[in-house]
Design brief:
The chain is mainly alpha-helical. The chain contains eleven helices and five strands. The strands form two sheets. Strands 4-3-5 form a three-stranded mixed beta sheet. The chain has a two-stranded antiparallel sheet with strand order 1-2.
């Protein structure tokens, strides 16, 4: 056993004092890729902060739909912050050793916010489904209170969905290796290092994607089947197109988020080289938080009008101040 795999162990708890996060291996100049992720993170912070500010500042956007949009922006910002700064510290500053407690904390927060992204997209699909299929009852069904209750419950569910696997990992003994073959404290590569029975963690590794990703995606697909049926009942093509435009931004967000996940958890994801898997997974986690604000700014008419209104107000204010 190499010194890296045999040191840093606590003999009483059979938990390592540290884990070693391997990251990309055998690829020259990988630091440029991590710098790219840092650049993407900076854009994500700016974009999602801008979206949250616009929703907060414009009373016209204080609606149930934009509570869900605000919630998505928060989860986007949080997942990027939980992942990228530690990643930069780990690989650009060569601090690949991470304490056992910090590793489990990192795992919890990255997956908590990642799960919440999936749930936020599900809530937005529910909102669009009710708006198009039951337009006369929309204000009765989708209220500010109901949206706040739904999002709060989903935050709790997402937290419990990763807290349970983390607690299972904490019960494992690590006496073989401390090298995590990933770019952060990923669930699968971590529990597979255990030297005792990790069947519960293995089962959670199979159940989690189904509950957190596939069921929400199935729900979103079902909502759009209902939306498509409702659109076919609309008499005029112009009204049908207008209704479809309210869904385009959400459909793009769904594609940006779920397509890479389908690759990661699909058949291809299990047979590719771990470097390809790391690059695909890292891009799947950092690109959607950057793209979501851009998509909403450009593809949502209400949001675009709000930006124009804030710009005109700011321009008038500057003109008055200069006189």
């Amino acid at each position: 056993m190499s010194p890296l795999n045999s040191t840093f162990f606590n003999a009483t708890t059979v938990h390592p004092e540290y884990f070693f996060v391997s990251g990309l291996s055998g690829i020259p100049h990988t630091k440029y890729y991590y710098v790219f992720l840092c650049f993407v993170y900076a854009l994500s912070v700016l974009g999602n902060t801008f979206v949250m500010f616009m929703i907060y500042a414009d009373h016209c956007l204080h609606s149930p739909k934009y509570i869900a949009v605000f919630n998505l922006a928060v989860s986007d910002l949080c997942v990027s912050t939980a992942l990228v700064p530690p990643l930069i510290d780990t690989f650009l500053f060569k601090s690949q050793l991470i304490s056992y407690e910090a590793c489990l904390s990192n795992m919890f927060f990255v997956f908590w916010f990642l799960f919440m992204q999936s749930f936020s997209l599900t809530v937005l699909s529910y909102d669009r489904c009710v708006a198009i299929c039951f337009p006369l009852r929309y204000n009765e069904i989708i209220t500010t209170k109901s949206m706040l209750v739904i999002t709060t419950i989903l935050w709790i569910i997402a937290g419990l969905a990763i807290l349970i696997p983390v607690l299972f990992i904490n019960r494992l003994s690590f006496c073989k290796s401390i090298v995590i073959n990933s770019y952060f404290c990923d669930h699968g590569p971590t529990f597979r290092l255990a030297c005792n029975d990790y069947t519960p963690s293995y089962m959670m590794g199979w159940i989690q994607p189904i509950v957190i990703f596939w069921l929400p995606l199935l729900f979103i697909t079902g909502t759009y089947i209902c939306i498509a049926r409702a659109l076919l009942k609309i008499a005029t093509a112009s009204e049908r197109l207008k209704a479809m435009k309210t869904c385009t931004s959400h459909l793009i967000l769904v594609g940006v988020y779920y397509f890479p996940i389908c690759i990661i958890y699909g058949a291809i994801g299990s047979i590719v080289h771990h470097n390809v898997r790391i690059i695909n997974a890292s891009l799947a986690m950092v690109l959607p938080p950057m793209l979501n604000p851009i998509i909403y700014s450009l593809k949502t008419e209400e949001f675009t009008e709000s930006i124009k209104k804030q710009y005109r107000r700011h321009k008038i204010h500057i003109t008055v101040m200069n006189k």
